[in-house]
Specification:
Blueprint (H helix, E strand, L loop, with lengths): L3 H13 L2 H11 L27 E2 L2 H16 L3 H17 L1 H12 L4 H14 L9 E5 L2 E9 L2 E5 L5 H14 L3 E5 L5 H17 L7 E4 L4 H9 L5 E5 L2 H8 L4 E5 L5 E4 L5 H12 L12 E5 H13 L2 E4 L2 H10 E3 L8 E2 L8 H7 L10 E5 L15 E7 L2 H11 L6 E5 L3 H11 L3 E4 L19 E2 L5 E2 L6 E9 L6
Parallel strand pairs: 1-6, 4-5, 4-7, 5-6, 7-8, 9-10, 9-16, 10-15, 11-14, 14-15, 16-17
Antiparallel strand pairs: 2-3, 3-20, 12-13, 18-19
Helix pairs in contact: 4-6, 4-7, 4-8, 5-6, 5-8, 6-7, 7-8, 11-12, 15-16
């Protein structure tokens, strides 16, 4: 008698020989490949001409915005159950193609590493909230009933970075569509190929679940000029920008409502009460994550002198390589294009942003083990790396006399970005003091930075952390307008 495995294999082979089933599987599989139809299913208008190989990718901004307007009207006419199915299909696109998309992102941008990008992308796909985030509120009293609901803005204009092209687009797209909006992306020019591919795959998945094409649109050749035009376009209702200080400033001065994720310089304080073994491991994991390009990564360690040497030992056990003497100067000159100083950010050398520690070390004439995850260097408070968000696996380490001085210096060196900070301590009073003093959108206690994004920590994730405009970790409700409907003198039950 054949065993169970053989029987199952025989059944599978018999089913797959059915031509109708094979055709169905082939059709469904096209959702996650690059065979993209060129026409919209719009019932309310004619979709503009788009790239015949990419659904949602248009040669000019006006065409993209026009298509997104049509798609958004179709979306809000659909049942919420369809919107939920759309969101689940979008999650599957990234989960099923994660390795391929991650490899393409690294190849195209030249920054980060495939393994960590897969973690980021999976996180964005699984832990970005969906339609369930849009909870209405009801108030009643002797004067009747008032219903407050969260309504879409319409067409959102979004600018995304090259550092997290897959995870940012995925997370934004899920949240914005869940809220009932359509989106026009101006992706980073250095990530336009993988970004366009993902947008097209998501559009196809949306359509297969009964949604309209072109809920997600982009221009085929994104530039600074197209970004500026996006900010000024009359049919763009709201802007969501993830980028550096220049693009954030432009968005906030556009005259439109803007939700902006700007720069940071996250400090990490470690005091004498911390679990030093765990802190050393967590800091290396966080600061080296995707070669340091994630905005929440630890950018400088401020360690109380009493435990500083032990902490460095633990960090080196977990993949940090400590630079000394002339090595520190060589790497600093290599990675800092414009030195910073007290209260002033320097400029990183873009040629080394997101590169591996081995690549950076080799360029500085230093040989490090292949297992190295992070280049560690003990420096003084005024060292330019302490004040610069360098976006590399290079971590300055400052020895502090006591925890209170470390907290106070962390507030100064964070430079008021109010982005992210970390602290390792078992002193509740000091943890509370730093939480209040640092006043950041994301504060992680006793864990690596990415725990604040729900990777090993509680809560939901977001790859647009709106610190300049104050929304913090964005979610579907962030991309809505609040509307109130009041019924006078009725429906009060009690």
């Amino acid at each position: 008698m054949a065993n169970l495995t053989d029987e199952i294999q025989s059944i599978v082979e018999e089913v797959m020989q059915n031509p109708e089933i094979a055709a169905l599987l082939k059709t469904q599989d096209s959702v996650y490949k690059n065979s993209i139809p060129t026409t919209s299913n719009s019932q309310t208008g004619t979709s503009p001409v788009q790239n015949p190989e990419r659904a949602g990718i248009f040669p000019d901004l006006d065409s993209a915005v026009s298509a997104a307007k049509i798609a958004q009207r179709e979306l809000i006419a659909l049942p919420l159950d369809t919107r939920r199915a759309i969101i689940e299909a979008m999650r599957r696109v990234v989960l099923w193609n994660n390795a391929d998309l991650s490899a393409q992102a690294v190849e195209e941008t030249g920054i980060g590493n495939v393994e960590d990008k897969q973690i980021k992308n999976k996180l964005a796909a699984m832990k970005t909230p969906g339609v369930e985030d849009l909870e209405p509120r009801v108030s009643t009293d002797e004067h009747g009933l008032t219903l407050t609901e969260l309504a879409p803005w319409g067409v959102i204009g979004t600018i995304t970075p090259m550092t997290n092209p897959i995870s940012t687009i995925e997370s934004n797209a899920i949240g914005m569509i869940a809220a009932g909006n359509s989106v026009v992306f101006n992706v980073h020019p250095n990530a336009k190929s993988v970004s366009s591919r993902l947008i097209s795959m998501l559009n196809e998945a949306i359509h297969m679940e009964g949604g309209p094409f072109n809920l997600l649109c982009a221009v085929s050749n994104p530039t600074i000029e197209s970004a500026n035009a996006l900010m000024k376009h009359p049919d763009i209702s709201i802007l969501v920008v993830t980028g550096g200080p220049g693009v954030v400033k432009a968005a906030m001065g556009s005259g439109k409502k803007a939700i902006c994720a700007g720069p940071g310089n996250p400090p990490c304080v470690v005091d004498s009460t911390a679990d030093i073994v765990k802190a050393g491991r967590d800091i290396v994991l966080g600061a080296s994550f995707d070669n340091g390009i994630v905005c929440v990564c630890e950018k400088e360690v401020l360690a109380v002198a009493q435990i500083a040497d032990r902490l460095k030992e633990e960090m080196c056990k977990n993949g940090a390589f400590e630079l000394t003497g002339a090595q520190i100067d060589a790497v600093t000159k290599l990675v800092i294009a414009e030195p910073g100083g007290p209260d002033r950010e320097g400029a990183p050398n873009k040629a080394y942003v997101g590169k591996s520690p081995a690549t950076i070390a080799a360029a500085a004439g230093i040989t490090v083990p292949k297992s190295t995850k992070l280049l560690l260097m003990e420096v003084g408070r005024e060292h330019p790396l302490v004040w610069t968000e360098q976006l590399m696996p290079v971590l300055p380490f400052v020895r502090m006399p006591n925890v209170d001085e470390a907290i106070d210096f962390a507030v100064v060196v964070e430079r008021g970005c109010r982005h992210s900070a970390m602290m390792h301590s078992h002193d509740i009073e000091k943890l509370s003091r730093m939480a209040k003093a640092i006043n950041c959108s994301l504060f992680v206690k006793n864990g690596p930075c990415f725990a604040g994004l729900a990777q090993g920590g509680a809560g939901y994730t977001s790859f647009t952390i709106a610190t300049p405009t104050g929304e913090g970790l964005t979610r579907p409700r962030t991309f809505t307008r609040e509307r109130r409907c009041t019924l006078v003198d009725a429906f009060r039950i009690v």
